[in-house]
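Hi,

Apologies if this is the wrong queue. I'm a grad student, and the batch job for Fibrillarin-like rRNA/tRNA 2'-O-methyltransferase from Halorussus aquaticus produced an output file that my downstream script rejects. I'm not sure whether the problem is my script or the file. Here is the sequence I used:
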Amino acid sequence: MTDLPEGVERRAFDGSERLATRGPPVYGEPTDEGWRCWDAGRSKLAAMVESGLDTGLAGGETVLYLGAASGTTVSHVADFSGPTYAVEFAPRPVRDLVGVAEDRQNLFPLLKDARKPESYAHVVESEVDAIVQDVATRGQARVAVENARFLREDGRLLAAIKARSEDVTRDPEDVFDDALADLRERYEVLATERLEPYHDDHLGVVARPK
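Support response: The file is valid. Your script probably expects a header line. Output copied below for reference.
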């Protein structure tokens, strides 16, 4: 079983062992003595952990999170990480994200487009330890390539590639192959894993800069 980052544990919720982080609740998730259930069915990163991928996260890292939406997963990431920059381009989810950040001093919401990293380069620290990516847009691999500038030399890209966001008519495996080929322009791909049964037609990818 993959080692969990410091600040992440397996705890019993509803009679089964589930991932959990310690922090203020955000979206009505089950809690137990300050711990909050981190549901792999609602979080691609949790699904990557549950699928056995070695994320390389130890806890306390500086993280750039691309595709933060309303803050479900990034709130858990901020629970066990250091400075966490949360990029989301849709104004409505960012309003929720700002509310999540009120309880987490290390979480910094950015109303920006992850496809345009130059628009937030003046805010995000250089050489972050990890990029976590969950963007539901065409060109997901290109987003990761464009944001590689922020990642330190031995950092990690943890990306969830959604086949249906690229092309609903193609076989997901073909979509994944193309995405991995694009990623290899800037990254060495260390491991991949399909994220079923938690998320259909998603591929979890762990990579590091070349």
